[in-house]
Amino acid sequence: QVQLVESGGGLVQAGGSLRLSCAASGRTFSNYAMGWFRQAPGKEREVVAAISLSGVSTRYADSVKDRFTISRDNDKNMVYLQMNTLKPEDTAVYYCAAGPRGAYVSDNYIYWGQGTQVTVSS
Predict the structure, then answer these.
(1) Which residues contact 55 (CB under 8 A, 6 or more apart)?
(2) Residue 31 dihedral angles phi and psi, to the nearest 5°
(3) CA 40, CA 90: separation in Å to the nearest integer?
(4) pLDDT band at 51 (very low <50, low <70, confident <90, very high)
(5) CA neighbours within 13 Å on the CB side: how many for 70?
(6) 10 Å Cβ neighbour count for 94?
(7) Which of 34-38, 82-86, 106-110 has the lowest mean pLDDT?
(8) DSSP assignment of 77-101
(9) Helix (H/G/I), strand (E/B), else coil: 103
(10) Bridge partners, 2 (sequence order)
């Protein structure tokens, strides 16, 4: 079992930045691929970014590429999402997720956090 707790959400103006954090506890953090997802009102949940077990490999949704950066610190059991040049369409609840190695490409995550709200005003 892995417990995930997100933090860092809030209200920001368009063009601003936020850094989301996700603290993991439970099983060995470095054994899990990690991902950030988001869900806007009335829309399906979508993957935003993913990072491999070691942190060497990352991938992003086209909508956030070159604006968002995912990273992880396996010593601190943390994963981060640095979000720059935020747009109103980035408004959503953001979720941290953990899964087996293959989740990095399959998005088949097992454990989920409660989510943190990000609101971008125009």
Answers:
(1) 71, 72, 74
(2) -85, 0
(3) 8
(4) very high
(5) 29
(6) 23
(7) 106-110
(8) TEEEEEE-S--GGG-EEEEEEEE-T
(9) helix
(10) 26
